[in-house]
Design goal:
By secondary structure, the chain is an alpha+beta fold. Helix content is 45%, strand content 15%. The relative contact order is 0.16.
Length: 164
C-alpha cells in the first residue's frame, strides 16, 4: 500500500512518480502539497501502510529518510492514525490495491481510487461495503499506532547503516 499525496513530504512528492514528465513535476508537486493542507484538526485520518513500502528508498536516501521522519511527525497528531501492516502478515486484503474511504457527517461515504491516468469515485453500497470490509481486516492485522511508530523509527535508525 502506498501513502499517497497528502501524507507524503513535499520532497518525496517531487521524485515519486516516474510516469510524470519532467516539465510537469512542479505542477504535480504543488498539487500534492495543496492536498497535504487537508490534514488539519477537525477531521480524522487513518492511514494503513505496508511495512515493505516503508523500506523503499523513493527519491534517494535523503528524501526517503525525510519521508520517514515526516510520517513520524504526522503520526503523533491526535487526529491522524498511522498503522503499519507488518511484512509478517503476508498476503492480505489490502494487497488488492490502494483506495481512500471518505466519510462525511451529512453525506454517504465515497470510495476514491486513483491510477496513473484516471481517478474514480464510487458511492454504490456494494463498493462501500467491500472497501469497508478491507479496512476492518487491515485494522485487525495492523500494528498499533505506537508499534507502528517504533517500526518507522527502527527503519530510520537502520537507514544510517545503508548510507555507509
Amino acid at each position: 500500500m502506498l501513502l499517497e499525496g497528502c501524507s507524503r513530504s513535499t520532497s518525496s512528492g517531487r521524485t515519486h512518480a516516474p510516469s510524470v514528465k519532467p516539465d510537469d513535476v512542479p505542477t504535480v508537486a504543488a498539487a500534492r502539497a495543496a492536498r497535504a493542507n487537508m490534514l488539519e484538526p477537525g477531521r480524522k485520518f487513518t492511514f494503513f501502510v505496508h511495512e515493505q513500502a516503508l523500506w523503499l528508498p523513493v527519491g534517494g536516501m535523503e528524501v526517503w529518510r525525510e519521508q520517514l521522519a515526516h510520517l513520524l511527525r504526522m503520526s503523533v497528531r491526535k487526529y491522524i492514525s498511522l498503522r503499519v501492516v507488518p511484512r509478517s502478515a503476508g498476503m492480505h486484503a489490502g494487497t488488492a490495491g490502494d483506495f481512500r474511504m471518505m466519510k462525511f457527517p451529512k453525506y454517504p461515504p465515497v470510495v476514491y481510487v486513483e491510477s496513473v491516468n484516471y481517478c474514480l469515485f464510487f458511492d454504490d453500497a456494494d463498493t462501500i461495503k467491500i472497501n469497508d470490509d478491507i479496512l476492518t481486516a487491515l485494522a485487525a492485522l495492523a500494528l498499533t499506532e505506537e508499534e507502528s511508530r517504533a517500526v518507522i523509527d527502527n527503519i530510520l535508525e537502520g537507514s544510517d547503516d545503508r548510507l555507509a
